[in-house]
Amino acid sequence: MDFDLFVIGGGSAGVRCGRIAAGHGARVAVAEERFWGGTCVNVGCVPKKLLVQAGEYGGWADDAAGFGWTIKKGPHDWAKLIAAKDREIGRLNAIYRRLLDNAHATIFDTRAVFLDPHTLDVGGQRVTAERIVIATGGHPTRVAFPGSEHAIISDDAFYLPTMPRRVAVLGSGYIAVEFAGIFAALGAQVDLVYRAPLPLRGFDQDMREALAEALTAQGITLHPGCTPRALALDGDAKILTLSNGTDLTTDLVFSALGRAPATAGLGLDKAGVTTGLTGAVVVDAHLHTSQPHIYAIGDVTDRLNLTPVATAEGHALADSLFGKLARSISLHNVPTAVFSTPPLATVGLTEEQAAAHGPVDVYVSKFTPMRHTLSGRARKSVMKLVVDQTTQKVLGAHMLGEDAPEIMQGLAIALVMGATKADFDRTIGIHPTAAEEFVTMRTRTRVAGVAKAAE
Protein backbone atom coordinates (compact mmCIF):
# COMPACT_ATOMS: atom_id res chain seq x y z
CA MET A 1 0.00 0.00 0.00
CA ASP A 2 1.16 3.55 -0.73
CA PHE A 3 -0.13 4.84 2.61
CA ASP A 4 -1.16 3.51 5.99
CA LEU A 5 -3.95 6.10 6.11
CA PHE A 6 -5.57 8.22 3.43
CA VAL A 7 -7.94 10.98 4.55
CA ILE A 8 -10.45 12.40 2.06
CA GLY A 9 -11.18 15.95 3.20
CA GLY A 10 -9.03 18.69 4.69
CA GLY A 11 -11.51 20.19 7.12
CA SER A 12 -11.41 20.16 10.91
CA ALA A 13 -11.98 16.41 11.18
CA GLY A 14 -9.66 15.35 8.38
CA VAL A 15 -6.72 17.57 9.26
CA ARG A 16 -6.81 16.56 12.94
CA CYS A 17 -7.06 12.87 12.08
CA GLY A 18 -4.23 13.05 9.56
CA ARG A 19 -1.96 15.14 11.77
CA ILE A 20 -2.34 12.95 14.85
CA ALA A 21 -1.96 9.72 12.85
CA ALA A 22 1.23 11.05 11.26
CA GLY A 23 2.47 11.99 14.72
CA HIS A 24 2.04 8.35 15.73
CA GLY A 25 4.33 7.34 12.86
CA ALA A 26 1.77 6.41 10.20
CA ARG A 27 2.34 7.14 6.51
CA VAL A 28 -0.50 9.60 5.95
CA ALA A 29 -1.97 11.44 2.97
CA VAL A 30 -4.76 14.02 3.01
CA ALA A 31 -6.65 15.25 -0.07
CA GLU A 32 -8.67 18.48 -0.20
CA GLU A 33 -10.24 19.74 -3.40
CA ARG A 34 -11.61 23.10 -2.25
CA PHE A 35 -10.10 24.83 0.76
CA TRP A 36 -8.08 23.75 3.79
CA GLY A 37 -9.97 24.11 7.05
CA GLY A 38 -13.28 23.08 5.49
CA THR A 39 -16.64 24.73 6.03
CA CYS A 40 -15.98 26.06 9.54
CA VAL A 41 -12.87 28.04 8.68
CA ASN A 42 -13.92 29.26 5.24
CA VAL A 43 -17.71 29.55 4.97
CA GLY A 44 -18.96 28.67 8.43
CA CYS A 45 -18.38 29.33 12.10
CA VAL A 46 -15.23 31.45 11.93
CA PRO A 47 -16.21 34.07 9.32
CA LYS A 48 -19.79 33.99 10.59
CA LYS A 49 -18.70 34.96 14.09
CA LEU A 50 -16.54 37.77 12.71
CA LEU A 51 -19.64 39.16 10.99
CA VAL A 52 -21.64 38.79 14.23
CA GLN A 53 -18.96 40.75 16.07
CA ALA A 54 -19.08 43.48 13.41
CA GLY A 55 -22.76 43.94 14.16
CA GLU A 56 -22.10 44.00 17.91
CA TYR A 57 -19.79 47.00 17.57
CA GLY A 58 -22.62 48.97 16.02
CA GLY A 59 -24.90 48.04 18.90
CA TRP A 60 -22.33 49.04 21.48
CA ALA A 61 -21.92 52.41 19.79
CA ASP A 62 -25.68 52.96 20.16
CA ASP A 63 -25.70 51.77 23.78
CA ALA A 64 -22.81 54.00 24.82
CA ALA A 65 -25.05 57.06 25.15
CA GLY A 66 -26.63 55.57 28.26
CA PHE A 67 -23.20 55.56 29.88
CA GLY A 68 -22.33 59.15 29.05
CA TRP A 69 -20.51 58.67 25.75
CA THR A 70 -21.40 60.64 22.66
CA ILE A 71 -20.43 58.50 19.68
CA LYS A 72 -21.19 59.56 16.14
CA LYS A 73 -21.76 56.38 14.17
CA GLY A 74 -20.98 56.61 10.47
CA PRO A 75 -22.15 54.18 7.76
CA HIS A 76 -20.78 50.66 7.92
CA ASP A 77 -18.11 49.74 5.35
CA TRP A 78 -19.09 46.24 4.19
CA ALA A 79 -16.21 45.97 1.71
CA LYS A 80 -13.67 46.75 4.44
CA LEU A 81 -15.19 44.10 6.73
CA ILE A 82 -15.15 41.41 4.02
CA ALA A 83 -11.54 42.25 3.12
CA ALA A 84 -10.50 41.92 6.77
CA LYS A 85 -12.42 38.66 7.04
CA ASP A 86 -10.70 37.31 3.92
CA ARG A 87 -7.26 38.13 5.33
CA GLU A 88 -8.01 36.21 8.51
CA ILE A 89 -9.40 33.22 6.62
CA GLY A 90 -6.28 33.19 4.44
CA ARG A 91 -4.13 33.10 7.56
CA LEU A 92 -6.11 30.16 8.97
CA ASN A 93 -5.96 28.31 5.64
CA ALA A 94 -2.18 28.47 5.77
CA ILE A 95 -2.12 27.21 9.36
CA TYR A 96 -4.20 24.12 8.53
CA ARG A 97 -1.95 23.24 5.62
CA ARG A 98 1.18 23.90 7.67
CA LEU A 99 -0.02 21.57 10.43
CA LEU A 100 0.01 18.69 7.95
CA ASP A 101 3.33 19.76 6.46
CA ASN A 102 4.92 19.87 9.90
CA ALA A 103 3.57 16.38 10.63
CA HIS A 104 5.18 15.14 7.36
CA ALA A 105 1.85 14.10 5.84
CA THR A 106 1.54 14.00 2.06
CA ILE A 107 -0.80 16.71 0.77
CA PHE A 108 -2.97 16.49 -2.34
CA ASP A 109 -4.71 19.67 -3.47
CA THR A 110 -7.27 17.78 -5.51
CA ARG A 111 -10.32 15.52 -5.38
CA ALA A 112 -10.07 11.89 -4.27
CA VAL A 113 -12.57 9.28 -5.53
CA PHE A 114 -12.83 5.56 -4.72
CA LEU A 115 -11.97 3.05 -7.45
CA ASP A 116 -12.26 0.05 -5.13
CA PRO A 117 -12.16 -0.49 -1.34
CA HIS A 118 -8.41 0.20 -1.12
CA THR A 119 -7.74 2.31 -4.24
CA LEU A 120 -8.40 5.98 -4.93
CA ASP A 121 -8.18 8.18 -7.98
CA VAL A 122 -6.46 11.30 -6.64
CA GLY A 123 -6.43 13.93 -9.35
CA GLY A 124 -5.77 11.27 -12.00
CA GLN A 125 -3.21 9.37 -9.91
CA ARG A 126 -3.96 5.87 -8.56
CA VAL A 127 -3.20 5.64 -4.84
CA THR A 128 -3.65 2.71 -2.46
CA ALA A 129 -4.14 2.84 1.31
CA GLU A 130 -4.53 0.27 4.06
CA ARG A 131 -7.10 2.43 5.83
CA ILE A 132 -9.21 5.27 4.44
CA VAL A 133 -11.13 7.99 6.29
CA ILE A 134 -14.04 9.86 4.70
CA ALA A 135 -14.13 13.42 6.10
CA THR A 136 -15.78 15.38 3.30
CA GLY A 137 -18.23 17.28 5.52
CA GLY A 138 -21.46 18.76 4.21
CA HIS A 139 -22.80 21.52 2.01
CA PRO A 140 -25.85 23.82 1.97
CA THR A 141 -28.81 22.52 0.03
CA ARG A 142 -30.81 24.49 -2.52
CA VAL A 143 -34.53 23.93 -1.97
CA ALA A 144 -36.34 24.21 -5.27
CA PHE A 145 -39.36 26.48 -5.79
CA PRO A 146 -40.25 28.76 -8.74
CA GLY A 147 -37.48 31.36 -9.01
CA SER A 148 -35.29 29.77 -6.31
CA GLU A 149 -32.26 30.13 -8.59
CA HIS A 150 -32.32 33.84 -7.69
CA ALA A 151 -31.71 33.10 -3.99
CA ILE A 152 -28.27 32.74 -2.43
CA ILE A 153 -27.06 30.08 0.03
CA SER A 154 -24.76 30.50 3.02
CA ASP A 155 -21.56 29.93 1.02
CA ASP A 156 -22.43 32.97 -1.10
CA ALA A 157 -23.17 35.27 1.84
CA PHE A 158 -19.51 35.61 2.82
CA TYR A 159 -18.57 37.06 -0.57
CA LEU A 160 -21.39 39.52 -1.28
CA PRO A 161 -19.88 42.55 -3.06
CA THR A 162 -22.22 44.99 -1.31
CA MET A 163 -24.35 44.98 1.81
CA PRO A 164 -28.04 44.55 0.88
CA ARG A 165 -30.49 47.00 2.45
CA ARG A 166 -33.40 44.53 2.49
CA VAL A 167 -32.97 40.81 3.14
CA ALA A 168 -35.41 37.92 3.35
CA VAL A 169 -33.96 34.89 5.13
CA LEU A 170 -35.60 31.50 4.61
CA GLY A 171 -35.30 29.04 7.49
CA SER A 172 -34.99 29.09 11.27
CA GLY A 173 -31.98 26.94 12.10
CA TYR A 174 -28.53 28.05 13.26
CA ILE A 175 -27.57 29.69 9.95
CA ALA A 176 -30.89 31.44 9.36
CA VAL A 177 -31.22 33.12 12.76
CA GLU A 178 -27.52 34.01 12.87
CA PHE A 179 -27.52 35.74 9.51
CA ALA A 180 -30.85 37.42 10.21
CA GLY A 181 -29.15 38.99 13.23
CA ILE A 182 -26.00 39.87 11.27
CA PHE A 183 -27.85 41.70 8.51
CA ALA A 184 -30.15 43.48 10.96
CA ALA A 185 -27.23 44.61 13.12
CA LEU A 186 -25.47 46.01 10.05
CA GLY A 187 -28.52 48.07 9.14
CA ALA A 188 -30.65 45.95 6.82
CA GLN A 189 -34.39 45.51 6.95
CA VAL A 190 -34.79 41.77 7.60
CA ASP A 191 -37.68 39.33 7.17
CA LEU A 192 -37.30 35.81 8.59
CA VAL A 193 -39.54 33.22 6.96
CA TYR A 194 -39.95 29.76 8.48
CA ARG A 195 -42.38 26.87 8.44
CA ALA A 196 -42.50 26.10 12.18
CA PRO A 197 -44.31 28.18 14.83
CA LEU A 198 -40.97 29.08 16.46
CA PRO A 199 -37.32 29.19 15.34
CA LEU A 200 -34.65 26.58 16.20
CA ARG A 201 -36.53 23.30 16.00
CA GLY A 202 -35.15 20.81 18.52
CA PHE A 203 -34.06 23.41 21.07
CA ASP A 204 -35.73 23.98 24.43
CA GLN A 205 -39.19 25.54 24.14
CA ASP A 206 -38.47 28.40 26.56
CA MET A 207 -35.33 29.29 24.61
CA ARG A 208 -37.20 29.19 21.30
CA GLU A 209 -39.88 31.54 22.64
CA ALA A 210 -37.27 33.87 24.10
CA LEU A 211 -35.33 33.94 20.83
CA ALA A 212 -38.46 34.85 18.86
CA GLU A 213 -38.97 37.79 21.24
CA ALA A 214 -35.32 38.82 20.89
CA LEU A 215 -35.42 38.71 17.09
CA THR A 216 -38.52 40.90 17.11
CA ALA A 217 -36.88 43.32 19.57
CA GLN A 218 -33.97 43.59 17.12
CA GLY A 219 -36.38 44.81 14.45
CA ILE A 220 -36.56 41.57 12.45
CA THR A 221 -40.01 40.80 11.03
CA LEU A 222 -40.97 37.18 11.69
CA HIS A 223 -43.14 35.13 9.34
CA PRO A 224 -43.83 31.86 11.22
CA GLY A 225 -45.84 29.12 9.58
CA CYS A 226 -44.80 30.24 6.09
CA THR A 227 -42.84 28.72 3.22
CA PRO A 228 -41.60 30.35 -0.01
CA ARG A 229 -43.98 29.91 -2.91
CA ALA A 230 -42.22 31.88 -5.68
CA LEU A 231 -39.43 34.38 -6.28
CA ALA A 232 -39.57 36.88 -9.14
CA LEU A 233 -37.30 39.69 -10.31
CA ASP A 234 -38.56 43.28 -10.44
CA GLY A 235 -35.70 45.37 -11.80
CA ASP A 236 -33.00 45.33 -9.14
CA ALA A 237 -35.49 44.16 -6.52
CA LYS A 238 -36.91 40.72 -5.83
CA ILE A 239 -40.49 39.80 -5.01
CA LEU A 240 -40.82 36.82 -2.68
CA THR A 241 -44.31 35.33 -2.46
CA LEU A 242 -45.06 33.36 0.70
CA SER A 243 -47.47 30.48 1.21
CA ASN A 244 -49.90 32.77 3.07
CA GLY A 245 -50.12 35.06 0.03
CA THR A 246 -47.84 37.80 1.37
CA ASP A 247 -45.45 39.44 -1.11
CA LEU A 248 -42.11 40.67 0.27
CA THR A 249 -40.09 43.19 -1.74
CA THR A 250 -36.42 42.69 -0.99
CA ASP A 251 -32.91 43.05 -2.38
CA LEU A 252 -31.63 39.63 -1.35
CA VAL A 253 -33.20 36.25 -0.61
CA PHE A 254 -30.99 34.05 1.54
CA SER A 255 -32.02 30.38 1.57
CA ALA A 256 -30.88 28.62 4.74
CA LEU A 257 -33.15 25.59 4.50
CA GLY A 258 -30.70 22.85 5.35
CA ARG A 259 -27.44 21.07 4.67
CA ALA A 260 -26.57 17.65 3.29
CA PRO A 261 -23.57 15.30 3.60
CA ALA A 262 -21.02 15.75 0.78
CA THR A 263 -20.94 12.18 -0.54
CA ALA A 264 -22.06 12.59 -4.16
CA GLY A 265 -19.47 11.48 -6.70
CA LEU A 266 -17.09 9.89 -4.17
CA GLY A 267 -17.52 6.42 -5.66
CA LEU A 268 -18.77 4.98 -2.38
CA ASP A 269 -20.59 2.22 -4.27
CA LYS A 270 -17.26 1.01 -5.69
CA ALA A 271 -15.86 0.90 -2.19
CA GLY A 272 -18.88 -0.92 -0.75
CA VAL A 273 -19.65 1.88 1.71
CA THR A 274 -23.28 2.14 2.82
CA THR A 275 -25.08 5.49 3.02
CA GLY A 276 -28.41 6.43 4.54
CA LEU A 277 -31.43 8.20 3.07
CA THR A 278 -29.80 11.65 3.31
CA GLY A 279 -26.57 10.44 1.72
CA ALA A 280 -24.80 10.32 5.09
CA VAL A 281 -22.18 7.63 5.58
CA VAL A 282 -23.46 5.08 8.10
CA VAL A 283 -21.02 4.41 10.95
CA ASP A 284 -20.96 2.43 14.19
CA ALA A 285 -19.88 3.66 17.62
CA HIS A 286 -16.23 3.33 16.59
CA LEU A 287 -16.67 5.22 13.29
CA HIS A 288 -16.41 2.10 11.11
CA THR A 289 -18.40 2.14 7.89
CA SER A 290 -19.79 -1.01 6.28
CA GLN A 291 -16.19 -1.68 5.21
CA PRO A 292 -14.09 -2.46 8.31
CA HIS A 293 -11.01 -0.59 7.05
CA ILE A 294 -12.93 2.53 5.92
CA TYR A 295 -14.05 5.11 8.46
CA ALA A 296 -16.12 8.31 8.39
CA ILE A 297 -15.90 11.30 10.71
CA GLY A 298 -17.51 14.72 11.05
CA ASP A 299 -20.52 16.14 9.24
CA VAL A 300 -20.44 13.50 6.49
CA THR A 301 -22.01 11.12 9.03
CA ASP A 302 -24.82 13.63 9.77
CA ARG A 303 -25.06 12.75 13.45
CA LEU A 304 -24.06 15.82 15.47
CA ASN A 305 -22.77 18.38 13.00
CA LEU A 306 -20.49 20.55 15.13
CA THR A 307 -16.85 21.39 14.44
CA PRO A 308 -15.52 20.38 17.89
CA VAL A 309 -17.28 17.02 17.54
CA ALA A 310 -15.65 16.46 14.15
CA THR A 311 -12.24 17.41 15.53
CA ALA A 312 -12.65 15.13 18.55
CA GLU A 313 -13.71 12.23 16.33
CA GLY A 314 -10.67 12.70 14.11
CA HIS A 315 -8.32 12.76 17.08
CA ALA A 316 -9.90 9.73 18.77
CA LEU A 317 -9.82 7.71 15.56
CA ALA A 318 -6.14 8.46 14.92
CA ASP A 319 -5.27 7.49 18.50
CA SER A 320 -7.28 4.27 18.18
CA LEU A 321 -5.73 3.23 14.87
CA PHE A 322 -2.10 4.22 15.34
CA GLY A 323 -1.59 5.26 18.96
CA LYS A 324 -1.54 3.10 22.05
CA LEU A 325 -4.95 4.32 23.21
CA ALA A 326 -8.16 2.92 21.73
CA ARG A 327 -10.91 5.41 22.54
CA SER A 328 -14.15 6.93 21.32
CA ILE A 329 -16.04 10.14 22.11
CA SER A 330 -19.47 10.57 23.62
CA LEU A 331 -22.20 12.48 21.83
CA HIS A 332 -24.04 13.06 25.11
CA ASN A 333 -23.89 16.42 26.90
CA VAL A 334 -22.23 18.16 23.97
CA PRO A 335 -22.52 21.94 24.43
CA THR A 336 -23.48 24.11 21.50
CA ALA A 337 -24.17 27.77 20.77
CA VAL A 338 -26.20 29.72 18.26
CA PHE A 339 -24.59 33.10 17.58
CA SER A 340 -27.88 34.89 17.22
CA THR A 341 -28.32 38.40 18.65
CA PRO A 342 -28.14 37.84 21.59
CA PRO A 343 -26.58 34.36 21.47
CA LEU A 344 -28.15 31.17 22.73
CA ALA A 345 -26.19 28.32 24.31
CA THR A 346 -27.18 24.95 25.66
CA VAL A 347 -25.86 21.67 27.03
CA GLY A 348 -27.73 18.51 27.92
CA LEU A 349 -31.43 17.74 27.62
CA THR A 350 -34.27 20.12 26.89
CA GLU A 351 -37.20 20.17 29.29
CA GLU A 352 -39.24 18.22 26.76
CA GLN A 353 -36.59 15.53 26.33
CA ALA A 354 -35.99 15.12 30.04
CA ALA A 355 -39.71 15.07 30.93
CA ALA A 356 -40.24 12.18 28.52
CA HIS A 357 -38.29 9.99 30.98
CA GLY A 358 -39.92 11.10 34.22
CA PRO A 359 -40.46 14.02 36.62
CA VAL A 360 -38.05 16.94 36.39
CA ASP A 361 -37.73 20.14 38.38
CA VAL A 362 -37.48 23.20 36.13
CA TYR A 363 -35.84 26.46 37.16
CA VAL A 364 -36.20 29.53 34.92
CA SER A 365 -34.93 33.07 35.40
CA LYS A 366 -35.64 35.98 33.05
CA PHE A 367 -34.19 39.44 33.64
CA THR A 368 -32.81 42.60 32.05
CA PRO A 369 -29.00 42.43 31.96
CA MET A 370 -27.28 45.05 34.10
CA ARG A 371 -25.79 46.75 31.05
CA HIS A 372 -29.19 47.43 29.54
CA THR A 373 -30.66 49.01 32.65
CA LEU A 374 -28.58 52.01 31.53
CA SER A 375 -28.44 51.51 27.76
CA GLY A 376 -32.22 51.29 27.53
CA ARG A 377 -32.01 48.48 24.96
CA ALA A 378 -35.03 46.16 25.05
CA ARG A 379 -33.13 42.95 25.73
CA LYS A 380 -33.71 40.12 28.18
CA SER A 381 -31.55 37.23 29.32
CA VAL A 382 -33.18 33.87 30.03
CA MET A 383 -31.52 31.07 32.02
CA LYS A 384 -32.83 27.61 32.70
CA LEU A 385 -31.89 24.43 34.55
CA VAL A 386 -33.61 21.08 34.08
CA VAL A 387 -33.10 18.77 37.07
CA ASP A 388 -33.99 15.10 37.54
CA GLN A 389 -36.43 15.07 40.45
CA THR A 390 -35.23 11.73 41.86
CA THR A 391 -31.44 12.06 41.63
CA GLN A 392 -31.31 15.88 41.53
CA LYS A 393 -28.74 15.57 38.74
CA VAL A 394 -28.75 18.57 36.41
CA LEU A 395 -29.81 17.17 33.03
CA GLY A 396 -29.84 20.38 31.01
CA ALA A 397 -28.65 23.98 31.14
CA HIS A 398 -29.86 26.62 28.68
CA MET A 399 -29.29 30.34 28.24
CA LEU A 400 -30.24 33.11 25.86
CA GLY A 401 -28.29 36.28 26.49
CA GLU A 402 -24.99 38.07 26.12
CA ASP A 403 -21.94 35.86 26.83
CA ALA A 404 -24.12 32.72 26.87
CA PRO A 405 -21.59 30.63 24.88
CA GLU A 406 -18.72 31.60 27.20
CA ILE A 407 -20.80 30.76 30.28
CA MET A 408 -22.12 27.48 28.89
CA GLN A 409 -18.66 26.08 28.18
CA GLY A 410 -17.95 26.07 31.91
CA LEU A 411 -21.34 24.62 32.81
CA ALA A 412 -20.76 21.81 30.31
CA ILE A 413 -17.90 20.53 32.45
CA ALA A 414 -20.26 20.32 35.42
CA LEU A 415 -22.90 18.41 33.48
CA VAL A 416 -20.38 15.99 31.99
CA MET A 417 -19.15 15.30 35.54
CA GLY A 418 -22.71 14.63 36.72
CA ALA A 419 -23.25 17.68 38.94
CA THR A 420 -26.42 17.91 41.01
CA LYS A 421 -28.56 20.92 41.80
CA ALA A 422 -27.01 20.89 45.28
CA ASP A 423 -23.57 21.25 43.67
CA PHE A 424 -24.81 24.32 41.83
CA ASP A 425 -26.44 25.71 44.98
CA ARG A 426 -23.33 25.41 47.14
CA THR A 427 -21.15 27.17 44.54
CA ILE A 428 -20.54 30.83 45.34
CA GLY A 429 -21.48 33.20 42.53
CA ILE A 430 -19.35 35.96 41.03
CA HIS A 431 -21.11 39.25 41.62
CA PRO A 432 -22.28 41.17 39.71
CA THR A 433 -22.52 38.86 36.70
CA ALA A 434 -25.27 37.22 34.73
CA ALA A 435 -23.56 33.84 35.20
CA GLU A 436 -24.16 33.89 38.97
CA GLU A 437 -27.85 33.37 38.28
CA PHE A 438 -27.11 29.71 37.51
CA VAL A 439 -25.93 29.16 41.11
CA THR A 440 -28.56 31.30 42.82
CA MET A 441 -31.79 29.90 41.34
CA ARG A 442 -33.56 28.47 44.38
CA THR A 443 -37.27 28.72 43.55
CA ARG A 444 -38.57 25.95 41.32
CA THR A 445 -40.58 27.35 38.40
CA ARG A 446 -42.53 24.16 37.66
CA VAL A 447 -42.44 20.37 37.56
CA ALA A 448 -42.60 18.55 34.24
CA GLY A 449 -42.89 14.89 33.26
CA VAL A 450 -45.25 13.87 36.05
CA ALA A 451 -47.74 12.35 33.63
CA LYS A 452 -44.96 10.25 32.10
CA ALA A 453 -43.99 8.95 35.54
CA ALA A 454 -47.61 8.03 36.28
CA GLU A 455 -47.71 5.83 33.17
Under CATH, the homologous superfamily of the largest domain reads: FAD/NAD(P)-binding domain
Q: State the domain count.
A: 3
> What does the main sheet amount to?
7 strands, mixed
Q: Class of the largest domain, according to the CATH hierarchy? A: Alpha Beta
Topology-level CATH name of the largest domain: FAD/NAD(P)-binding domain
Task: Identify the CATH architecture of the largest domain.
Answer: 3-Layer(bba) Sandwich
Quote the beta fraction.
15-25%
Note poorly predicted spans: none
Q: What is the CA–CA distance across the termini?
A: 58 Å
What characteristics describe this protein?
single chain; FAD/NAD(P)-binding domain; Enolase-like, domain 1; seven-stranded mixed β-sheet; six-stranded antiparallel β-sheet; 14 helices
Write up what this structure looks like.
This protein is α/β, with parallel strands linked by helices and 455 residues long. The chain has 3 domains: 3-140 and 260-322, FAD/NAD(P)-binding domain; 148-257, FAD/NAD(P)-binding domain; 342-454, Enolase-like, domain 1 (2-Layer Sandwich). Helix content is 32%, strand content 24%. The chain is built from 14 helices and 22 strands. It has helices at 12-23, 38-43, 45-63, 78-102, 154-157, 174-185, 205-217, 268-271, 307-322, 351-355, 370-375, 404-416, 421-425, 450-454; strands at residues 3-8, 28-31, 106-108, 112-116, 119-122, 125-134, 138-140, 166-170, 189-193, 221-223, 228-234, 237-242, 247-250, 252-255, 259-261, 294-296, 336-338, 344-348, 360-367, 381-388, 394-400, 446-448. Strands 1, 2, 3, 4, 5, 6 and 16 form a 7-stranded mixed β-sheet that branches. Strand 11 (228-234) and strand 12 (237-242) form a beta hairpin. Helix 1 packs parallel to helix 4. It is globular and about 65 Å long. The model has no long low-confidence stretch (mean pLDDT 97).
